[in-house]
Design goal:
InterPro entries: Aminotrans_V_dom, Aminotrans_V_PyrdxlP_BS, PyrdxlP-dep_Trfase, PyrdxlP-dep_Trfase_major, PyrdxlP-dep_Trfase_small, SP_NH2Trfase/AEP_transaminase
GO molecular function, one term: alanine-glyoxylate transaminase activity
Strand content: 15-25%
Order of helices and strands: EHHEHEHEHEEEHEEEHHHHEEHEEHH
Protein name: Serine-pyruvate aminotransferase/archaeal aspartate aminotransferase
Helix content: 40-55%
Oligomer: single chain
Family: Belongs to the class-V pyridoxal-phosphate-dependent aminotransferase family.
Cofactor: pyridoxal 5'-phosphate
Distance between the termini: 40 Å
Number of strands: 14
Strand order of the largest sheet: 2-10-9-8-5-3-4
Bound molecules: pyridoxal-5'-phosphate
């Protein structure tokens, strides 16, 4: 038998078989009626999943590309922009805005912290920045920030909010219109259960007004041209048509399950994963509460190398999880539970981790993690 593979990283994520099958359909021409019909449906479903009436622009790119589109459409050279970081991705957006010659006002927290709305309010007032770059789920740490209150702070200051929701949209609640989020960016390969290759940006009316004043150069990422094309169910350039067909199927599945049920499943998976880690006597790196519904970050026991553990899981057991970074690279590993994941994916990962930890000399009670995970999951689902 070929090696069976289990993909449990916070992106890319596993994809339902129906979505994979849709990828195998004959390639559609992007100016054909067949494609336009699919794209019309996809646009409508994206608005439902984004919880917005605004157009959701579709780019053939990774999530970083769509975030770059926000920077070049909203900002001008030398313009002040508040860029909030509480981990790897927030720091990426600080560097990106600097690379485009913006005057970056950095608000930086230690990894593992959550940004505070009052700090955002103060930083905007002190700097006069009219745009704020925020991260919803900081995938490097597992911290999910309180976007509703952070965006309210932006509103108070009259600033446009740009939210990196790349690992959160479709996993945890994000009420784009109700919370007044101006720009929401995500990618296809995380909670949207689709292979990598597409990225999205929803844009509010207030943000469109800012676009008209912003002067950074833009061409491929030009939102105005993208919107005009999308209103005809087209894109300016050749999109990843097969991936859009696949995405349309994935969005249909998400909406059929229902967003509240999807979010409840993610909470339950987080609980299962944390209960399993605790039962093995492991320390959590991500928050030990239901906010950590996107991924679980776990530290290895003292003396056990996380990189070695991760590679052994991949090469010996076919289980791919994510590693750590910086100061905790030797200790941290991360299990993603976003998208097409159920509790048996979690028990598979926990079972393999238990086996491998024992082999590397850790004292772990056999079977405890799986039992605890199933119990936590069942009690959550029963509620
Ligand atoms: C995955 C991720 C990104 C990067 O997305 P790419 O699609 O790799 O460009 C950015 N931000 C967050 C929070 C992510 O989880």
């Amino acid at each position: 038998m070929p090696r069976k593979r289990y993909l449990l990283t916070p992106g890319p994520t596993p994809v339902p078989p129906e979505v994979l099958a849709a990828l195998g359909e004959p390639v559609l021409h992007h100016r054909s009626p067949d494609f336009k019909a699919v794209f019309a449906e996809t646009r409508a479903r994206l608005r439902q999943v984004f919880r917005t009436e605004n157009e959701v622009l579709v780019f053939s790119a990774s999530g970083t590309g769509a975030f770059e589109s926000a920077v070049v459409n909203l900002l001008s050279p030398g313009e002040k922009v508040l860029a909030v970081s509480h981990g790897n991705f927030g720091t990426r957006w600080q560097k990106m805005a600097a690379a485009f010659g913006c005057d970056v006002v950095e608000l930086t927290y230690a990894w593992g912290e959550a940004p505070r709305p009052d700090d955002v309010r103060r930083a905007l007032a002190a700097s006069g920045a009219l745009v704020a770059l925020l991260v919803h789920s900081e995938t490097s740490t597992g911290v999910v920030s309180d976007v509703e209150r952070l965006v309210a702070a932006c509103d108070d200051a009259g600033a446009i909010s740009v939210v990196d929701a790349i690992s959160s949209l479709g996993a945890v609640p994000l009420e784009t219109d109700a919370w007044g989020v101006d720009v929401v960016v995500t990618g296809s390969q995380k909670a949207l259960m689709t292979p990598p290759g597409l990225a999205f940006a929803s844009v509010s009316e207030r943000a469109w007004a800012k676009v008209e004043q912003a002067t950074l150069p833009r061409f491929y990422w030009d939102w105005t041209r993208a919107r005009a094309n999308q209103e005809r169910n087209e894109t300016p350039f050749t999109p990843a048509t097969s991936t859009i067909v696949a995405l349309n199927t994935a969005l249909e599945q998400i909406l059929a399950e229902g967003l509240p049920a999807v979010f409840a499943r993610h909470v339950a998976l987080g609980r299962a994963c944390r209960a399993g880690a605790r039962a093995m006597g492991l320390e959590l790196y991500s928050p030990d509460d239901d906010s950590a519904a996107v991924l679980t970050g776990i530290l290895t026991p003292e003396g056990i190398d996380a990189v070695e553990l991760r590679l052994a899981l991949r090469d010996r057991h076919g289980v791919t999880i994510a590693g750590g970074h910086g100061d905790v690279v030797d200790r941290l590993f991360r299990i993603g539970h976003i998208g097409y994941v159920d509790v048996f994916d979690i028990t598979t990962a926990l079972g393999a981790i238990e086996l491998q930890l024992a082999e590397m000399g850790a004292s772990v009670e056999r079977g405890a993690a799986v039992a605890a995970a199933l119990e936590a999951y069942a009690s959550t689902v029963a509620v």
